[in-house]
Each structure stands twice: as structure tokens, then as C-alpha cells.
Amino acid sequence: MAGAIVVDRRTFNRGIDAMMKEYGTSAAGVMRRQMSILSGQLAKRYPPNKKSVGKQAIENDMKRIMIPMPQEHEDTLTRWQDSMESTFDVFDDTGTRIQQWHRDHIDPRKNRVTKSIRGTRFINGRKFSMKLHVKESDLKKYVNRLAGKVGTLKSGWVPGVTRWKGGKKPPSWVTKHSGNGYAVDRMRNDGSGYLEIGNRIQGAARWKRIDSFVVKSRESGFQKELKAAVRKADKAGNRIR
Questions:
Q1: With contact defined as beta carbons under 8 Å apart, do 165 and 189 qualify?
Q2: Mean pLDDT rounded to a whole number for the chain
């Protein structure tokens, strides 16, 4: 990260020295703190911003490819299934086809339903949707099960927050998912070497625009911290050379 900070070398070095004294750490410690902050900001920026928002997105996806039948129409669903199963197989009164139907209509690159089923078919003078017709209660159970995984995408950045101090720890609905990212520390106390973080979740690559925004924001923030640390040290009479 240091190489991307746009300040003159003397200000950078003075800032690092000032921050080392302020936080009681080495040059590597300063950079680890910055990487932890970066990790926390990435986790915060990645969707969803709330668990409830993630659950709603899942439900919206399901309704793009399925039709939930309320309890008062469950008998109708069974009747349609019994009478048309051999000719028009889009009815499921047991809930056993929901998961596979979802998998068949998901975009693996984004792990989301990206296309709604819009086709219809006329049978005996009635228009039926090509979406899978299911019990509302069965779909709700499936949505609730998937909602338990909300936060998985964000969790890929948690290792960077927990390995080094400085970043804000994400909420529990994010941190409960583990093993979805990594944090590598190959930095020596003098600041040479490198630190690396990565998100292993499939589909994380589509959020590169967030990565770019957060990195640029942290670079700017670090630049301000460096200058502020120098001013603070100078004002306290501990002038950094």
C-alpha cells in the first residue's frame, strides 16, 4: 500500500516514524494496521449492508422463477399437478423440486438468478406461467435456509480484520462464516516484504469496482493519517526528522 500513497518520500517516512511512536509499533505494525482497516472497509462495502436486505434479495430471486401458492390454494396446486403432470410439469406440491429448480436457473458466475421466467402456456383455455408453482410455506422454508448463508460474500475479508488490529470487526452474521478468505503476512519489522488479503467466495470478482473504490479511499485516508501524525508530533515537541 505504501507505494500507492501520493506524498513526497520525506513526508511518508516522517509519517511512518510518527505513527510508529504513536501506536508503539514497528513500520510493519503500521502497515498491518492499515491492511486491517482496509479489510474491514471491504467487508462493510460488500453486499448486503444488512442481513434483512440479503434475505429479501433471495426471496426476490425465487419469485423470478417460482410462484408461491398460499395455503388456501394448496388443494388447487395438487389438483393441477395430478391432472397435468405428464404434459405440463411445472407444479410441485411437496417442495422437493425447489432446490434443483433454483440451481437450474442460477447464474454460476454471480450466484444469483439473473433472468426471470416469462413464458406462459394455454391449457384448456387457461394461461399458466412457466414458473414452478410451489406451496408458499415450502418456498418460505427454502428462503429461510438460504438466508442463513447471508454474509458469506462479506466474510471473505474477515481474516484480514482478525489477523491484524485496527479494522472494525463485521457483525456476527458475517463473522460466523469462516474459511472464505485469507490473510498472508510476509512483512518484516522494517516494513519490507508484503501483506496480502483475498476473498475466495465464488462471484467475488464481479465486485472489483468496490475493491477499487475502497483501496483508493484507504490510500487517501492513509495519506491524511501520515500528515496528521507528523503535525501531531511536531505540535507536541517531538519533531520527526
A1: no
A2: 88
